[in-house]
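Q: My collaborator sent me two sequences in one message, no labels, and asked for predicted structures for both. Can we handle them in order? The first one she listed is below.
A: Yes, handling them in the order given. First sequence, followed by its structure tokens:
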Amino acid sequence: MSKASSKGTGARTRARELLVQALYQKQIAGHSSEELLDQFHEQAAYQRVDQAYFDEQLPAICLAQEELEKTIDDLIDRPLDQLDPVERGILLIGTYELESRIDIPYKVVINECVNLARRFGSLDGHKYINACLDVAAKSLRKIEVQANAGG
């Protein structure tokens, strides 16, 4: 892997980390995506992320949040409002990517979200995220999952 490629991957991972923080803040403080974009653009951490990805994903996830939460609600074993806000944000990111970013392989989506949960979530939250997104991938990326299972 070239240096530029690994830097791009790291920048995308850091963008997801900021997304978790922004979605957490949205849930806690009720900020709009525009307010969040303005706030996060001013942070030093923003300079080290895949800015185009962050700037595209945050408003898209916020716009689709209600629909994404309906999808998530079908995947989880408890009421949506009982989810930890961090895990809820991670599931929003993962579900959005599985539904709308078919350029990102489902295994990458799940792995990135599990790592986010390890970093920001509760002690065993990563196991829950993994289980939920595994179920989501089987329905949202059925052909891709089947192709991977076959070979």
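Q: And the one she listed second?
A: Here it is, processed independently of the first:
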Amino acid sequence: MLCLVTGGAGFIGSHVVRNLLERKYRVRVLALPSEPRDRLDGLDVEILDGNLTSDSDLDIALDGVDFVFHLAAIHAQWMADFSPMYRVNVDGTRLLLEKSREKGVKRIVYTSTQNVIGWNPRGLSDENTPFKEYKKSSHYTRSKFLAEQEVWKFIEKSDSPEIVILNPSGPFGPGDTGPTGKVVKDFLRQKIPFYFYGYFNVIDVDDLAEGQILALEKGKAGERYILAGHDVSLKEFFGLLEKVSGVPGPGLRLPRFLVYAVGFLMEKMSDWFTRRPPKMTVDRVRQRGRKKLLDNTKIRNLGLQIRPIEETLKRTVDYHRKQL
């Protein structure tokens, strides 16, 4: 069976590719021409240059494909112009779905985000917790919410391929050069001066990749699955990093309102002066600065085993220490 992995040259996508190859699937990757391919070095994969918003690129990429893993997206907390994000994340997803139907694709695994899972302040948030935060969310979260709505519309069509939706949390592990990896790198360099009250969820990137395969092979069509690992407070997270690295964590806890102010000021500095992504944003503080706990029962019922968080963070620390 031939699988197309959009975003397959990226952090998560490359781990999905490796998992597929281990299971003897044939793999084709769609990547931007400017995107580095080093994560795929030595792997028996077909790599096509292309863009999600191009009809002709998708026609070529989907030729003969049985299954699609759609992971490609623009993930940024700040951009000088957010319109390309909506074109790729929303319009690109819609076009990929349409082309997949035309090409006779059998099943699609669509990677959304836990950001569009609603917050249940009285307990665990599950796949049915309503999302009511669109207006105060970041452009990234809005774009992924709109993209997921396109997927749901497509699921309702009688001639649609089977589609499974995944809502992953924050991946950590070897090869992470994104926002989560930067947190670990900054920690090792002792560049994180404070923390604040809040929670987030950590999942090992290899567990996340395993969850993708389980969604393909065992997931129920027309369903969404929260692909999450361990809920931890920011204090607990930095304590665990300190334990596995030997580097002292931040000891100063700032009030949340003050961190909001810092995020707001950093965003305005980016908007008005630097034109570069800020180190902190209001939405990032909002996402982290509450006790949102994720229920991963549904994906575990497919057979996903979540490794200990200490193992994940140790693997991540070891990787970044080699890069320093």
